Amino acid sequence: MQIIYLKSIDSTQTYLKSRIQTKELQAPVAVVADIQTNGLGSRDNTWRSYEGNLFLSFAIKLKSLPKDLKLESASIYLAYILKETLENLYSKVFLKWPNDFMIEDKKIGGMITNIVDDTLICGVGLNLLTAPKEFNILDIKIDKKTLLDKYFKNLENNLSWKQIFSKYELEFYGNKFFYTHNNNHKISLKDAKLEEDGSILINGERIHSLR
Which of 7, 117, 118, 131 has a CA-to-CA distance to 177 between 20 and 30 Å? Predict the structure, then answer.
């Protein structure tokens, strides 16, 4: 994975997406910035920037994804591998459905995905050192380069969705303490049922990640 390090950028997601579209860059490639002035979060929210945190976007070819993975659940797959990477470094991070990283009951980061032609672009924000009061920071100390080296090495293992899902399913019960959003409505995950494709059933309605 080629990794491009930048001092400051409006958004690593916007930067990488535009250069994939113009063929200036090709997957696999990643962009990391020290500061984002207009970072993108889930549901078109802004992800606030504090120097020292992780601001990452990376691009991978759709054909390199596991054959049994539905694109609607790509963010769960990729986020879970990052969660496992952190867990193997002794973090107690929890992955809240579908792609929020939590320490205890507060968010420390998240992942969003977009498709450009034959490429999946993934954006990751992670509070390594500093966070607003309503958020939390990672519970271990690790430099960004070490974390990225370990994460991308784990991605190269090309585990199947079935392998990831079998572990994610065992931990899903922890979601009952949290909420998610669907069509801008806040919904409790207390009675959510996880389906094999990564979607959830709540009150008879199937909800996909779509991030």
Answer: 131
